[in-house]
Amino acid sequence: MHLSADHIKTLHKYEIRILQSVEYLMNRYSLVPVDEIVKNSRLSSGEVEFRIAKLMEKGMVKYAQVPYPGYTLVFNGYDTLAVSHLVKKGIISSLGSCIGEGKESRVYEALGTGPVILKLHRIGQRSFQTVRKGRSYLPEKQHCPWVIASHFSAEQEYLALSSLQNHVNIPTPLAMNRNVIAMTYIPGDRLSESPLENPNEVLEEILSQVHAAYKRGYIHGDLSEYNVMYDGNQIWIIDWPQWVSPNHENAAEILDHDLETITKFFFRRYRISSDMDCVRSRVTGC
Ligand SMILES: Nc1ncnc2c1ncn2[C@@H]1O[C@H](COP(=O)(O)OP(=O)(O)O)[C@@H](O)[C@H]1O
Ligand SMILES: [Mg+2]
Question: Domain named RIO kinase: which ranges (predicted)?
């Protein structure tokens, strides 16, 4: 089910309060018993039952009987808490349509003071195992690992966007809450969809941007024709949650993979050959 602007607009303040209670109580329970929601939300049990039925209709919480009866938040509910927070803070005033849906995110158009992009990070159970690798501070036993992993993924991307601001052509980060990042809208298309008249110049520009990011301590980690946009004038590098630092133990491999992916695209599409040693030293400066 998709997050709907109408569902968010018509949310009652008690529904938000219940979502917040369930979110909070998920630290203690794998399924949150209704009595606990009543206590935590300080609403009557009749009100909680009525509101929770509405939240289930909107696909924001789920009910299960086993191992005992209770409720959990699902992605739509978590996204909703984040998006309503951004609305309350005045970052966005309306939510538009979903313009991108990947394995680990959903991207929406929205309106703030100008066009805004909302990226909802959604790391499921399976991907979480990959995110956990090498990150010992992520708790082993957490009732809702997808909440932690999705929040963590958004934080990583937000960190890269904030640090690279004014140094690399990337969207400007505007705000972050839970698993959602608000950023500026980049006009244009992905390289995979833009026929280039000047591919040599564009490849040069990409390498110079990758170099600028590297100098500031960021290797993209998923560089490809799908994560570079071109607006007819300049390129923009998007989709940063999997960045690694040049000090990471696999930094050399990850950088090589990025550079190979992008140069292979230029060879396939435009027959531009690149010498990998030159490309690598261009980016690393050694
Ligand atoms: N700031 C942005 N401006 C315009 N379009 C964007 C922006 N960020 C993402 N998109 C669109 O959404 C798609 C998915 O976003 P991306 O960050 O690459 O996430 P993922 O590939 O993990 O799903 C992009 O390919 C692009 O078409
Ligand atoms: Mg992408």
Answer: 64-285
